[in-house]
Amino acid sequence: MICCIATIIVTYFIDRKTGKSTLFHVANDFYGNLSAGTNFNQGYWYLNMQPENMKELIEEHLASGNCPEEARQKLKDLAATLHENDNNVLMFGKLKQP
């Protein structure tokens, strides 16, 4: 089950055998803890988003006050390069092991 609360994507993982669930949130720590969604494949995370949606997500994240100061300029620079008629933005990264 996936829910979206403002700019935070919240996911619940449910154990089908026990019926127990747990809240799960993935953040892109390379881009100021931007909400990252839950697309995984073979040890990698990926995000495919239309540029206008990515720009909106970045602007909301910057306005929320939850973005570390050192990442603000990086996100502003990224948002400035996004235009409505551009190709989708594709981000991917190797998952960190706990």
Shape: globular
Element-by-element helix/strand order? EEEEEEEHHE
Quote the average pLDDT: 82
The helix-and-strand class reads: alpha+beta
Uncertain spans: 1-6
Strand content: 25-35%
Helix content: 25-40%
Q: In total, how many beta strands?
A: 8
Biggest beta sheet summary? 3 strands, antiparallel
Give the helix tally: 2
Strand order of the largest sheet: 1-2-3
Radius of gyration: 15 Å
- First-residue to last-residue Cα separation: 23 Å
Q: Can you tell me about this structure?
A:
- With 98 residues, the protein is an alpha+beta fold.
- 28% of the residues lie in helices and 34% in strands.
- It has two helices and eight strands; from the N terminus they run βββββββααβ.
- The strands form three sheets. Strands 1-2-3 form a three-stranded antiparallel sheet, with no helix packed on it. Strands 6-7-8 form a three-stranded antiparallel sheet.
- Strand 4 and strand 5 (34-35) form a beta hairpin.
- Helix 1 (51-64) runs antiparallel to helix 2 (69-81).
- The longest helix is centred in the middle third of the chain and has 14 residues, at 51-64.
- The protein is globular and about 45 Å long.
